[in-house]
Amino acid sequence: MSALLTFAQNQNIMAIQVGQHAPDFTLFDTDKKEVSLSALRNKNVVLVFFPLAFTSVCTAELCALRDNISSYVALNAEVLGISVDSLFSLGKFKEEQNINFPLLSDFNKDVSTAYETIYESFAFGMKGVSKRSAFVIDKEGVVRYAEVLEDAGKVPDFDAIQAILNTL
User: Fold this and answer.
1) What's the CATH number where 38 sits?
2) 63 carries an active-site annotation
3) What is the DSSP secondary-structure string of 89-152?
4) What's the pTM?
């Protein structure tokens, strides 16, 4: 775990703000490979946190990203989906929905906590589920867009995300 992530977890830090450096992290993807934010320098990164695989809004959100992946690639952006689901359930979800970008398992909730994007209480008594949110991180690791939604029924503003990417 990175020192910055550890620091964020041990402090009562305000939500991630535009202009600050994004907390680094390393998570496993559905191919059981480690993916680190710091390894993606020289690319813009779109981090999309989502509550749970196989739910209707999450499926629609990730499929919208899937269907428009070429526009993100054209903007030199790497899209990463993050949830607290296990990498095994994310793998099945990715396969069934033909998701064409990495899905990362934050099963221990470290990254969701560091990014201040976690529901204390969610539907059906579940605790510690990632909030639906999106962050654009530039090539130097600086947050250029941050949107954390309290209403899990809504999706991030993908037009605003692409507009930010167009300026980077």
Assistant:
1) 3.40.30.10
2) no
3) HHHHHHHHHT--S-EEE-TT-HHHHHTT-EESS-GGG--SEEPPEEEEE-TTSBEEEEEE-S-T
4) 0.88
